[in-house]
Each structure stands twice: as C-alpha cells, then as structure tokens.
User: What shape does this take?
Amino acid sequence: MSDPLADFNALPAPEAERRLLDCCGSEPWARAVLARRPFASAEALLAAADAEWRALLPEQWLAAFRHHPRIGERQATAGQSAAAGAMSASEQGGVQVAGTDVRTRLAQGNRSYEERFGFIFIIRAQGRSAEEMLGALTARLDNDPAAELRVAAEQQRQITQLRLRRLLELPT
Assistant: This one.
C-alpha cells in the first residue's frame, strides 16, 4: 500500500511543485512549501502550507486567485492545469445543478464583485449549493476592499487545504 506523504516527499522537485500549484496557483507559495520538504507528517505539510500562505503579500494572493475560474465558469483567467481545472469543476458541482435564474444571478454578481474589488469572487465551493454561494457573494459585496481581500485570502487558504488533503488522500 502506498503512502501519499512519502510519495510526495520523494517526488522530484519540479513534479512536487506542479502538484502544489494544482492546490494553489501561487508560485512563491509552492516554492516556499517545497523548500520545507521532507514533511514528517500530513499535519506538518498542512501547517507549512498555512504558514507560507499567510506570509505572502496581498499581490501574491491576488495572483493565486487568477488561477481559479469564476463561480459558474470553467476557465481561469490565468493558466490552470487539467488537474486543477478538474478540481475546480468538482468543487463547483453545486452550480452545475442550479437553475438558470441562480446561474444568471451568479454571473451578474461575479461582474459586480470584480468591478467593486478588482479580483474574482473566490469561495470554498466544496459542499455549498449555488444558492449558498450567491448569498455569500451578495453579502460580501458590502465589505470594504481591505476586509474583502482578507476574506478572499481565507477562502483560498481553505481551498488549498482541501486540495492538499485530497493529494494526501485524507478525509476532506
């Protein structure tokens, strides 16, 4: 039986970095996490991922956000691997089953959000319905830009943790 953490620790650096980038599109983050290998435990990897995310500058958070498609869309504004695209599609499953009205309102909300904040609406979509995501989008439009950037960064952190847990074959 394979040990996903041992397998990750043993990967050549370019492949390990690619897998980290599938979890979070920030190159500085991926390089910083990679530099901490080998990890003694899954918990150590997850903690390192959090610490390195929180150490990034806001413009590095924004760069990571561009590796996600808008809620309800399939294509990210920045490059996205096939693996990352599949993860996004799976995570956004609640949108795929939503009615036309909700999907239209999400698209309109995405545009309003981007006009207000200058970056895409990012949310940990896993396990959330389209209606829940629409409600969060609408509520977050009232945030001031600095507060919203922190909220979005926390959502990215949660997405990264979910994806790392999948990489390590841990419960999500």
Summary: The chain has a mean pLDDT of 89. The chain has one domain: 4-167. The domain at 4-167 is CATH 1.10.3330.10 (UraD-like).
